[in-house]
Amino acid sequence: MKKMKNPREEFKYIGLLDVYSYCLSEEEASELLTSFEGHQLKYEKNFKDFFIKTFHWAQEMPVYIHMSTFWGEDFNKLKPSHFNGYHLSKAEKKKVVQLLTYKTNTFKVSTIQELLLVVMLSTREIWLPIFFFPGIETAILGNFELSFPVYCKHQDAYIQLEKMAEESGIR
After folding, report:
1. CA 1, 5, 141, 29: dihedral to nearest 10 degrees?
2. Does 166 have pLDDT greater than 70?
3. CA 84 to CA 80: how far, in whole Å?
């Protein structure tokens, strides 16, 4: 993956995966987004469903993931203790620790299980990765409050992703 100064030059179709179809007021946000269980965990299954559909639609080609942290620490310097308090099972935490053994914070995933682990890390705001689907020339950015920017090079991909998002209960 190469770094771009302005992704809009190459990715003309830009959207947003979100639970809500409109910008929440301050009052709505403080009421609806305050509970981890009532927001992230409640809608995590919708995002997983969307990424499963996207993976299948992209012909199950590998997805490239660029992991970044918002702790201001290097990916390779993270310790298992960074993941306490995120509602991870022992098996999930073990998989996360395995990710830390990679020598780079950019890698490819080839299975639904690997992809869903990264989706879960993103919906729980543990990591905010960039998901790049080369087969459909699309990048999806993990972000806070389940509001993920989507960048597509082609209109047909954008339209299909929009349809799958709606089927998955996100917009």
Report:
1. 170
2. yes
3. 8
